[in-house]
Amino acid sequence: MDERTSLSRRKLLHTLAGAGVIAAADLAWWDAPFIAPRRAWGAEPVRFQWSVPEPTRIALMNSLVERFNQSQKDFAVQIEYVPQAQARQKLISAITGGSPPDLCQVWDNWVGQFNGMGAVEDITARAKTWKHYADVVPTAWQTVTINSKIISLPLAVTLDGIYYRTDRLKELGLKEPTPDWTWDEFLALSKAFTKADKNQYGYGMRGSGTWALLYPTEFAYANGAEVLKDGKVVINSKEAVDAVAWYLDLALKHKVTPPSAATDGFVEIVETFGRGVTSMYQHNSGSSGQQKKNVGVDKFATLPLPIGPAKKRASFWFSETLTMFKGAKNKEGAWQFMSFMLDDEPSLKYNTTLGLLPARKSILDRPVFSKDPALAGFVQSFPIGIVSPYLAYPGWGGKIDSDGVPLIQQAMLGKVSAKECLDRFAEILKKEMT
């Protein structure tokens, strides 16, 4: 890293601090690696692809990579930022071309596809002798284990919950919901929040992106449904159809969602909540940091998903992973960086900065996670967390995006029924099982 690069990265940090993205009081931590650039000329390079190149993550990863590079003399991580929309295809092309990066940051639903291509390195032996192995939450290990083989390290974990505006509750004189709330209470609160003449709606439904299908699936589990049972696809069971019909009625019948719900993605559901257009939305802890800036730390809170008619509920576990490839040229360097990222300080800084949850129990128990109202709904969801059923087959992840999301969007617009939507999607999943 030359002096110009160091200055450019430091300028980015100071810009983010000036915008309030990085706390000014923390600027010294972010600055530290760039004050004295490393000069280990003989270090072996480690190619690392990063798939979410937004400013805060870029600043964070630049700082963490330089910390690692300065902590030892044998390896030098070289980070390659790739736009998220292109990242999966770029990795597929690199794998088929025989030149994958040594390491990449991806989601667990991608890893299954890469593993199905025979491209992912089995790190079971390394992981089980790693000093933090026993400290990782067991379900986090499940998200990165296929056929009893550990194929990634879980950098961060997420579960879905419900964000709600506590300031809007007070404004309208509404009762505070409790962690054991029900579908009926969720619907009643959505209706009470909705003032269409003021462009205010109770629930920010998501119609775009993978989670547009995952969110109603979580509601389906609260009605006793499943995606896969005894080796058979049952996502179109009566329980699932009834639950998804109830979910769709939030938009079609009760009109408690914005008119744009069918096309609203991550950015829209986060921004409309921040602007007061919606008073509730479903997401993981990853947007909690953004809402602290948008809304204010004292004006919102989170809850687990509501309990359904089957007297149960579920929240799907996902992990953001660090994954090594079989074709990696520097596997030892890749492993050293992977394990560094889950050490105490890097894991704490990564997760607190981005509003994610650490995979390690000892870090998760710290007050910064366990006592934060913005994270309460997710921490309380641990007992109901299950590994996403859509990780069962490598091809399912891609079919959610290409086929499942367009189907649920049509259902949100009333163009197909819940039954037709799920019947068609079930057939798609069945074909991918072979």
Sum this structure up briefly.
The chain has 434 residues and is of the alpha/beta class.
CATH architecture of the largest domain: 3-Layer(aba) Sandwich
Distance between the termini: 48 Å
Low-confidence stretches: none
CATH fold-type name of the largest domain: D-Maltodextrin-Binding Protein, domain 2
- Domain count, please report it: 2
CATH classification class of the largest domain:
Alpha Beta
Give helix % range: 40-55%
* Arithmetic mean pLDDT: 91
Strand content: 5-15%
Largest sheet: 6 strands, mixed
Count of helical regions: 20
Features:
alpha/beta, Sugar ABC transporter substrate-binding protein, 13 strands, transmembrane, D-Maltodextrin-Binding Protein, domain 2, signal, 20 helices, globular, 434 residues, periplasm
SSE order and pairing:
Elements: H1 3-18, H2 27-35, E1 44-50, H3 55-71, E2 75-81, H4 84-96, E3 103-107, H5 108-116, H6 124-128, H7 138-143, E4 145-146, E5 149-150, E6 153-158, E7 161-165, H8 166-172, H9 183-193, H10 211-221, E8 228-229, E9 232-233, H11 238-252, H12 266-274, E10 280-283, H13 288-294, E11 300-303, E12 315-324, H14 331-341, H15 344-354, H16 361-364, H17 367-370, H18 373-379, E13 385-387, H19 396-412, H20 418-432
Parallel strand pairs: 1-2, 1-3, 12-13
Antiparallel strand pairs: 3-12, 4-5, 6-12, 7-10, 7-11, 8-9
Helix pairs in contact: 1-2, 1-3, 2-3, 3-15, 10-11, 19-20
Transmembrane segments: 12-30
Protein name: Sugar ABC transporter substrate-binding protein
Pfam families: SBP_bac_8 (PF13416)
